[in-house]
TrEMBL record:
Alphabetized PANTHER family for the sequence: CYSTEINE-RICH SECRETORY PROTEIN-RELATED (PTHR10334)
Residue span, SCP domain: 42-181
Signal sequence coordinates: 1-19
Protein name as annotated: SCP domain-containing protein
Pfam families: CAP
Keywords: Signal
């Protein structure tokens, strides 16, 4: 190897080593300074945390995940994703036994967004009077199920629709809260 080519090789080696070093420094800096990445939460954690926050805001304990309820939510969501609709299914076995909240979004919707859509109905609910001032076609029922004192457990599932990129989600609750929509949830 001539002295000249040795120099070229050494220069290239130094250049790539410093590129790697700066990439490592850059990544480390981003990691330390960056906000917590909520995207890394599983759907289950998003469902749980959304409910926990809404319930804590009115002094209620969090709900506990239940695999039996999740199975019911899975079966229900499997039906919904074919129709890609939140129209309730007829003659469902656990109707009236479990509470149920349904969600649909155009395109991708996260579990956190599903819970947020239910919780957002709380702006129409007056805890002092127990009245719901939701506009025509809207309700406070999903919110009232989220913050039902009677309910202690839940299981949920989020699925993409079969024939589109839209999303459906189902949460199933036990014991049932807000059965007739007239009792105060807490
Ligand atoms: C989960 O829910 C089912 C149905 O309500 C109930 O029978 C079961 O005891 C629950 N499991 C736990 C661990 O609490």
């Amino acid at each position: 190897m001539s002295p000249f080519s040795y120099l070229v090789v050494l220069t290239l080696t130094l250049a790539s080593a410093s590129a790697i070093a700066s990439a490592i420094t850059g990544n480390a800096g981003t990691y330390v300074a960056g906000p917590p990445k909520t995207m890394t939460l599983s759907a289950r954690e998003q469902f749980l945390q959304g409910h926990k926050a809404a319930r804590a805001a009115v002094g209620l304990p969090p709900l506990v995940w239940n695999a039996t309820l999740q199975l019911d939510a899975r079966r229900y969501a499997t039906e919904l994703r074919t129709r890609c609709s939140t129209d309730p299914l007829q003659a469902w076995g656990t109707e009236g036994v479990y509470g149920r909240n349904l969600f649909k979004s155009e395109g991708f919707g996260s579990a956190a967004e599903a819970v947020a859509s239910w919780v957002s109905e709380g702006r129409w609910y007056d805890a002092h009077t127990g009245e719901c001032s939701a506009p025509e076609g809207k309700t406070c029922a999903h919110y009232k199920q989220v913050v039902s004192r009677a309910t202690t457990q839940l299981g949920c599932l989020r699925r993409m629709c079969v024939f589109s990129d839209d999303t459906v989600a189902v949460c199933v609750y036990y014991p049932l809260g807000n059965d007739n929509g007239e009792q105060r949830p807490y």
